[in-house]
Amino acid sequence: MLICKWEKIPENMKNDAVHQYWRILRKKNFSLFWKRVFDIIVSFLMLIILSLLFIILAIAIKIDSKGPVFYRQERVTQYGKKFRIHKFRTMVIDADKIGSQVTVAGDSRVTKVGKFIRKCRIDEVSQLFDVLAGTMTFVGTRPEVPKYVEQYTDEMKATLLLPAGVTSLASIKYKDEDRLLDNAENVDETYVNEVLPGKMEYNLQALRKCGFWRDIGIMFKTVGAVLKG
Questions:
Q1: Does pTM top 0.85 for this prediction?
Q2: pLDDT in tens, 97-126
Q3: Which residues sit opposite 76 in a β-bridge?
Q4: Which residues contact 152 (CB under 8 A, 6 or more apart)?
Q5: From CA 22, how far away is CA 28, in angstroms rounded?
Q6: What is the pLDDT of residues 154-179, one digit of tens each?
Q7: d(CA 81, CA 59)
Q8: Residue 180: pLDDT above 70?
Q9: Beta-ladder partners of 83
Q10: 80 and 97 in contact (C-beta within 8 Å)?
């Protein structure tokens, strides 16, 4: 998770806007080291504690519909690296081939068990595997699919200086994102032009103010938002 030297930053990320954020984060490498230690310890313990829940969800998903337990969509993380995220599958097989890559309210591709999982907001608990592996962190910018990352402005690329996150302030503020896109004529276009810029304002602000205790606060806010929802 440590911020590497500027010379090692991918060429497509090197611009004046990213450099400003790089200077801020580079000074916080000590804090980022302990952030990674926290991720490893907590994700490992939570995987053990939630193992029974994982088994129950896996059985329910397999009984409800054909397909794998996990949805392994390609996403983008630190320095633009691609990885396949772990999410409990809540939609029919090949859902992204028969619709948009973002989900709207009342999406017909969502399975019966998937509706319950989404309502309880536990489909992303499986990303504990990604946190343990280091492709994600608990608090950080949510990982986007490559097609949306290609639309990033120079400043938005600064969010790729750190690993993608399971949750963030942007995730909390836009937890009902599917409702915002529900009436859009072109879901992908509306997401890129209206939703993504708003989320990125929160994500960029988080980079400027990142810190261990701030992350802990966001994790508690996330739990509160899920329980309230």
A1: yes
A2: 666 666 655 677 889 999 899 888 788 899
A3: 82
A4: 159
A5: 10
A6: 999 999 999 999 999 999 998 878 77
A7: 32
A8: yes
A9: 75
A10: no
